[in-house]
Specification:
Largest sheet: 7 strands, mixed
Radius of gyration: 20 Å
Helix content: 40-55%
Strand order of the largest sheet: 5-4-3-2-1-7-6
Oligomer: single chain
Number of strands: 7
Number of domains: 1
Structural class: alpha/beta
Number of helices: 9
Length: about 300
């Protein structure tokens, strides 16, 4: 498909040409594409040339990074420290370790946006029938998610009232030091798209359940905080402890997104090009092979494979 003209399939002047059942599609595409463009422009304004720089880092480190990870967050943070230290986010007067914490948050957000961008800017709208199944998902942690992951980064998008759109980035992280895979969940739900307000939730893909994965994630976070503060604590992980309660809360928040990632990476889902659905484009194949030129995001409608 021609990425230079893809967005023209969803121009407003042609909305009335569509059957009623597809009237919602073009407004959602325009709202979501505009949202993504705003996030990319915010990143480039704060860190000029950042994605070209990070793509070069990825190309130079390809032999050390799994094919399913675009670029480990630690490498993004290193690039920020080396070349953009004066542009990282931090309140006035914050320096040293405090500034490093803000820079780490910048790196995590850039990794999510960069993975989506490097994969080809794919937006996925999931069929309504799937949501009850995902919301009822159990605690089991899916096996082999990295090996099944289709592209560096995905953006799951939904329409909202008033012709708007919001969603969440999903991508996989590789911790080079610990040799550990993580699912990164980045909700994008602010009324106005804002890069510096994207929350990044890592979930280590370890343990047999989402709750155990959440517990291990919190333990590593605590260990990192201890290292920054120069202290050593022995966290209480017994049932009913504060950490145990936090793990259950974290698991309950992320269980839906774990199930979503597992479903998108399985043969239970099937994606079709939205531009083809509205009769304006030759059907593209999913996952899209290669990354073609152009900034226009591609929109895919994802439904159960047996529908």
């Amino acid at each position: 498909m021609d990425r230079e003209t893809y967005a023209k399939n969803f121009v407003k002047r042609r909305d009335q040409e569509l059957p009623d059942m597809y009237q919602w599609l073009p407004p959602m595409y325009r709202a979501a594409a505009g949202r993504m463009d705003k996030l990319e422009r915010q990143a480039e304004r704060q860190f000029p040339g950042i994605f070209d720089r990070l793509d070069a880092v990825r190309a130079g480190a390809a032999a050390d990074i799994p094919t399913w990870c675009w670029l480990p967050v630690a490498r993004v943070q290193e690039a920020l420290a080396n070349e953009y230290s004066s542009r990282t986010t931090h309140p006035p007067g914050v320096t040293g370790r405090g500034a490093a914490v803000y820079a780490a948050a910048d790196a995590a957000r850039l990794a999510a946006l960069g993975a989506w961008r490097a994969a080809g800017r794919h937006m996925l709208n999931v069929h309504d029938s799937v949501f009850p199944l995902l919301e009822a998902a159990g605690d089991e942690l899916p096996e082999g998610l990295p090996e099944r992951w289709p592209l560096y980064g995905l953006y799951v998008v939904s329409e909202t009232p008033g012709g708007k759109a919001m969603g969440a980035f999903l991508h996989l992280e590789w911790d080079e030091r610990e040799k550990r895979a993580e699912l990164r969940i980045v909700p994008d739900v602010e009324p106005v798209a804002s890069l510096d307000r994207l929350p990044v939730q890592p979930l280590h893909l370890e343990g047999g359940t989402v709750t155990e994965a959440a517990r291990r994630t919190l333990l590593v976070f605590q260990s990192g905080a201890d290292r920054v503060q120069g202290v050593e604590t022995v966290p209480d992980i017994s049932p009913g402890s504060e950490l145990d309660k936090m793990a259950h809360v974290l698991a309950s928040k992320n269980r839906f997104w774990v199930a979503m990632a597992d479903w998108l990476a399985s043969e239970r889902s099937s994606a079709v090009d939205a531009a083809w659905v509205v009769g304006r484009e030759t059907a593209g194949a999913w996952p899209a092979p290669g990354v073609s030129r152009g900034r226009a995001p591609l929109l895919w409608l994802v439904a159960p494979a047996d529908m």
